[in-house]
Amino acid sequence: MAKKKSKYYVVWQGRQSGIFTDWKECEAQIKGFQDARFKSFDTLPEAEQAIDRNYWEFVTKKEQAKPVPKAAPTHIGQPIKESIAVDAAWNTATGDMEYQGVYLNSGERIFLQGPFRDGTNNIGEFLAIVHGLAYLKTNNSTLPIYTDSKTAMAWVRKKHANTKLVLTPRNKTLFELLQRAERWLAENKYPNKILKWETEYWGENPADFGRK
């Protein structure tokens, strides 16, 4: 009987990162670990090259391929390169939420917050916009902010997060952040435009966490 071919397991994000030759060792690093990132390779050289590169280079293109965006009509045009984009991610299984902001032109992450327990995606999107506004004001920047959440944009205009989420001991910190964000909006003026990211025409929001 032919000997079973060995696999090499690269763990980018887990309890321990590295290259493992035994599945059980790999599984011990990723099982139950939120947002674990790993992939198997047939040869050691492939695994060694992969671990020094970005996980999404090996996963999103093949396993999470996104539809090709439509051509944008004239009245929509193309996104402004000199801007920042914000987005949130909400785990439907655990209720954990986190959000981040990136420079559109370079893709550089400028802030990442969370995960927060017992949150919602709308709350994350709202906090991301306000965080972005505060960040830009601190840096005397007039760059616009892109978000793909109409709900969060409406909350920011009204300076109030109209959430139906119930306060619990687990999400107390999140509610404190909401109150702080609403207070910031009430006390501050800003020149930055908050613009809708047109996913249908431009593809995924650059601040997306890539977990769909």
UniProtKB/TrEMBL annotation:
Q: Which residue ranges does the record assign to the RNase H type-1 domain?
A: 78-212
Q: Which GO terms describe its molecular function?
A: metal ion binding; nucleic acid binding; RNA-DNA hybrid ribonuclease activity
Q: Which UniProt keywords apply?
A: Cytoplasm, Endonuclease, Hydrolase, Magnesium, Manganese, Metal-binding, Nuclease
Enzyme Commission number(s) from the entry: 3.1.26.4
Protein residues bound to Mg(2+) 1: 87, 208
Q: Where does Mg(2+) 2 bind?
A: 125, 148
Q: Which cofactor does it need?
A: Mg(2+); Mn(2+)
Note on cofactor: Binds 2 metal ions per subunit. Manganese or magnesium.
Q: Which reaction does it catalyse?
A: Endonucleolytic cleavage to 5'-phosphomonoester
Q: Which InterPro entries match?
A: Ribosomal_bL9/RNase_H1_N (IPR009027), RNase_H1_N (IPR011320), RNase_H1_N_sf (IPR037056), RNase_H_bac (IPR017290), RNaseH-like_sf (IPR012337), RNaseH_domain (IPR002156), RNaseH_sf (IPR036397)
Give a Gene Ontology cellular component term annotated to this protein: cytoplasm
Subcellular location(s): the record lists:
Cytoplasm
Task: Identify its protein family.
Answer: Belongs to the RNase H family.
What functional role does this protein have?
Answer: Endonuclease that specifically degrades the RNA of RNA-DNA hybrids.
This chain's protein is named: Ribonuclease H
Please give the organism. Answer: Salmonirosea aquatica
